[in-house]
Amino acid sequence: MHFYNGFTAAEIGDAYGLKKLGPEKLNPFFTRGHLIDLAGLKGAMMEAGQEISLADVRAALQKQNMQEGDIKPGDAIFFNTGWGSLWMKNNDRFNSGEPGIGLEVARWVIDKDLSLTGGDTWAVEVVPNPDKSLAFPCHSELQTKHGIFNRENLTFDDPIADRKYQFVFIFTPAPIKGATGSNGCPIAVT
User: Which domain does 150 fall in, by range?
Assistant: First the structure.
């Protein structure tokens, strides 16, 4: 079992947390963000287990008058599925699974050399995966193999209401030594 930069499981952590690759090593994010409104494209909230395809991403970009070529290396990309509207209203359904990206879109993110993915869901990737033999393959592909970060449980209500699909994304991770993630307050500046 190897992690980003070739670290082995024994090198990366122990019973007290991460020894390598923890959020205390992260710099703040200050980059362009691109919001892909899948719920807006489809006219309703997506369903658990529904995978966002690359065709969906391109159709949403077109509907939002955005060009795929405007998404540059180092940028962040965010996916609004509508699923976040269930949080604190129907937590059983929210936690039962989620819509999200699959390996097709994850590989597109890698090819684009983006720095971060994010979504209004608790994993950003589709759960359950349509391929029943896979569990969280996008986490492995994006984070473990390519060092692409992930922000979960985001709210996009204001930018969507204002039709602001591109913005400056700012996030300073809390430097929690040994943690596998970080809290904080992400900001979209339009």
Answer: 36-154
Report the alpha-carbon distance of residue 130 to residue 24 in Å, rounded. Answer: 35
The one-digit pLDDT tens for each residue of the chain (190 residues) are 777 778 888 888 888 887 887 788 888 999 999 999 999 999 999 999 999 999 999 999 999 999 999 999 999 999 999 999 999 999 999 999 999 999 999 999 999 999 999 999 999 999 999 999 999 999 999 998 898 999 999 999 999 999 999 999 999 999 888 787 888 889 999 9
Residue 49 belongs to a domain: yes
HSE-CB of 130 using CA atoms within 13 angstroms: 11
Q: How large is the angle between the packed helices 103-112 and 54-63, nearest 10 degrees? A: 60
CATH code of the domain containing 49: 3.50.30.50
Residue 2 DSSP class? B
3-state helix, strand, coil in the chain (%, to 5): 35, 25, 45
Cα separation of the two ends of the chain: 41
- Indicate the pTM of the whole model: 0.92
Buried b / exposed e along 92-127 (16+ C-beta atoms within 10 A):
eebeebbbbbbbebbbbbeebebbbbbbbbbbbbbb
Please state whether beta strands 149-151 and 166-171 pair in parallel, antiparallel, or not at all (unpaired): unpaired
* Tally of domains in the chain: 1
